[in-house]
Amino acid sequence: MGDSILRLENIDKIYGEKIKTKVLHDINLEFNKGTFNSIIGASGSGKSTLLNILGTLDKPTNGKIFIDGKRTDNMKKNEIAKLRNETLGFIFQFHYLLPEFTAIENVLMPYRISGKKVTKEVRKRAEDLIEFVGLTKVKDNLATDMSGGQQQRTAVARSLINKPKILLADEPTGNLDSESTEKVYSLLRDISKEMNTTFIVITHDKKIAERTDRIIELKDGKINMDESK
Q1: How crowded is residue 68: how many other Cβ atoms within 10 Å of its Cβ?
Q2: What DSSP element (H or E) covers 23?
Q3: Cβ distance 149 to 122 under 8 Å?
Q4: CA-closest candidate to residue 40, choices 224, 216, 223
Q5: Cα torsion for 59, 64, 67, 70, to the nearest 10°?
Q6: CA distance 135 to 174
Q7: How many CB atoms lie within 10 A of CB 171?
Q8: pTM over 0.85
C-alpha cells in the first residue's frame, strides 16, 4: 500500500440489461498521495466512465475501490456522499459557477452544502484560496462579470475549499485559450506541490499529458499504456 490514496481492483463496467455494453475491462490502478496523473484516450475509450467511478459518481459492475484506505464500492449512498464531500474535489470542463453569486460566494458553496456554518476561519480560507489563484481583485465580481480563465480559476479555488486529498479534473481547460490553459495548469501543479493533493486529469491534449508525472492511456475500455516519469 505505502502512500496509496486511491486503488481500483479488477473494475468492470457494463451498461444495459437486455443489450449489454462493456465499457471498462478489468481495470487495476493505484494512485499515490501527492502525485500528478493524466488519463488520455480517444472519444469512447472509457475515460469519462472511469473518472465517474474514481469520483464515486458511478458504481462499477464488478471490482473493488479503496479511497484513503476505505472500501467505497459497497458503501451506502449517504456514506459515499459524506466521503466524496470530505475527500474529493472536482474540476470540470464547464466551470458550473452559480451566476447570481460572486467569486468568493461560489468558492464557499461546497462548504455551505455540507451544512456547516461559515466561520471566520473558513472565510479566511476562501480569501486565501482566491488570492492563491490570483483573483483577489475580482473576488466580489459576479461569475458573469469574469473572463473564462477567471471563471475556471474560481472553480479551481472552489474545488479546494473542503481540503480534498484527491482532485479529479475532466478536461479542465477544454474551453480556454492557450494562455489561460497555461495559467490553469501551472496553478494545478502549484496546488499539487503545496498541498500534497493527488491530481487525476482527464485530457485529450497530449501536450498537457506529457507534463504530468504519469500518463495512463485507455483504449477500448482497457489500459493500453501506463508510464511514469
Answers
A1: 16
A2: strand 21-32
A3: no
A4: 216
A5: 110
A6: 20
A7: 19
A8: no
